[in-house]
Design brief:
Length: about 190
């Protein structure tokens, strides 16, 4: 019986030694296989919830959700685990109250199209929007910046459509033709 207990203790210790916990800011290429990029600095709680703003007569609703300990795998077999901040959004045309876009019904982590990709100085946060196959995996980056004088406001800015890689399955000839409902101009979002 003592040998069995010793074996379990050794297995437990070896598993803990192989599972290194790292801060979220750690670059993906610096993550050892099986590591865990954890929200050690409590970045996510500020964002969690609903934020709204209006620009160009459209109301934008962004809803942020965190997912802990998510597997990130690469084609070469490497992997690590990561806490993720993801976002879904809705756009309403205020002239006629028509919903132009909404993915607020999503609940599976894989279906969310917006993800926090990096941040600096606990102020400037970079997000990536990856559309689905129907929109040719169109990709956009944008920033959300905390307002240091009012933590219930954030500034959306830096909309940048990424390079378009055409494929035979994509019906669009360039990324300007692909439907995209994210705002292209800067504006303020308010915590709800």
């Amino acid at each position: 019986m003592k040998n069995i207990i010793k074996i379990f203790i050794l297995i437990f210790i070896s598993l803990n030694m192989n599972c290194q916990t790292l801060p979220l800011k750690t670059a993906n290429f610096d993550c050892p296989n099986g590591a865990y990029k954890k929200d050690l600095d409590a970045v996510f709680p500020f964002w969690i919830g609903t934020w709204k703003g209006v620009i160009d007569n459209k109301e934008y609703t962004f809803e942020f959700v965190s997912f802990t300990n998510q597997l990130v795998s690469f084609s070469n077999g490497d992997n690590f685990y990561e806490d993720m901040l993801k976002c879904k959004f809705k756009v309403v045309d205020l002239t006629n109250n028509q919903v132009l876009y909404s993915d607020l019904h999503l609940s599976n982590v894989e279906d969310y199209k917006i993800k926090l990709i990096s941040y600096r100085n606990d102020n400037d946060y970079f997000f990536l929007f990856n559309d689905d196959e129907n929109n040719c995996y169109n990709t956009v980056e944008f920033n959300l910046v905390k307002n240091s004088s009012n933590y219930n406001n954030i500034v959306y800015k830096g909309f940048e459509q990424k390079d378009y890689i055409p494929s035979n399955d994509c019906p669009y000839s360039n990324n300007q033709e692909i439907p995209n409902f994210l705002p292209r101009s800067s504006f303020v979002l308010v915590r709800q």
